[in-house]
Amino acid sequence: MKYSIIVPVYNRPNEVDELLESLTIQTLKNFEVVIVEDGSKITCKDVCDKYSEKLDLKYFIKENSGPGQSRNYGAEKANGEYLIILDSDVVLPENYIKAVEDEINDNDADAFGGPDRAHDSFTDTQKAISYSMTSFFTTGGIRGGKKKLDKFYPRSFNMGIKRDVYSKLKGFSDMRFGEDIDFSIRIFKSGYKCRLFPDAWVWHKRRTDFNKFWRQVFNSGIARINLYKKYPESLKLVHLLPMVFTVGMIFLFTLCISGIITMLTADEGKWQTAGYVMTLCAALPIILYCLLILADSTKANKSIKVGLLSIVAAYVQLTGYGCGFINSWWKRCIRGKDEFSAYKKTFYK
User: Residue 44: phi, psi to the nearest 5?
Assistant: First the structure.
């Protein structure tokens, strides 16, 4: 067996059904599937039973411990030379395994990862969130884009690694959020070769509404400081941009409101002119960024509605991450608190 596909699951039987269905149509069949139920109340056992004769499938259920430890559990049960880690909310194109195989045969790697896309069947909100998480204008392309501001670190929604490397690094740490970046950092620090496989992409559903998306990116901002405390050298300029964006937007909106109030309350003359200038100077960069996102997303998704929703998604992503980053920086770097996360009870709701 060359590949073991490991999928941790928490209360997501419908997602697992779609993922397993996409695995049945792979053009290459040299893989097994290891599903690890992470203490779910709504299990996917019946779904896995449905595919037991179509796939080389193993199903395990364990107490809840989070996705990282569930992946480690699955790795212990796997037989493949390469371990491919997927999230339960992805769907694979039929040539996914072949794309991985072609890359390995052409230029082998100790670890690798692939990008993600939005499927035509996704809701407009999901497409907007997908855009904001993959666009150069929001993430700098660090999640798998060819244009990027930082080197590529595989993410756990689509990550592959040689089995012996996984064992030597002892798998994922017990971090609740950011555990995949922690793993990628350790891969690089240990001197292993890690590459982006651009053709080994997946359709990734992500969050279904902006409230859930906020909770996700807020915790991502917290995780970045948690990672910084473990690996100070891992914090790069690109990771500061959402925080700068957040502070900048607060300043611009405050300036804009102050300018409007000045225009409405001042007598005609220099103060009214000053209010007009303040409002214009504050509103112009906000409007220009919104138009940039609107144009780029509309072109990419061929939908002006998705383009408009992408503006909301971009602001939620950047300010959510920025607020989480600032919150964690204050608590951990200034007040000296231990590692933490937010929205523990509502993160998956």
Answer: -115, 25
pTM above threshold 0.85:
yes
Contact between 97 and 86 (Cβ < 8 Å): no
Angle, CA of 320, 325 and 331, to the nearest 5°: 125
Type of residue at 252? L
Within 169-269, residue ranges assigned H as helices are 179-189, 210-230, 237-265
**Tens-place pLDDT, residues 33-42:** 999 999 999 9
Please give the DSSP secondary-structure letter assigned to residue 94.
T
Can you tell me the distance from the alpha carbon of 37 to that of 8, in angstroms, rounded to the nearest whole number?
6
Q: Where are the beta strands (DSSP E) in the chain?
A: 3-9, 31-38, 57-62, 82-86, 90-91, 111-113, 116-117, 158-162, 194-196, 202-204
Q: Which segments of 36-113 does DSSP mark as H helices, in order?
A: 45-50, 67-77, 96-106
Sheet containing strand 90-91, edge to edge, reads 90-91, 202-204, 116-117
Q: Is the pLDDT of residue 272 over 90?
A: no
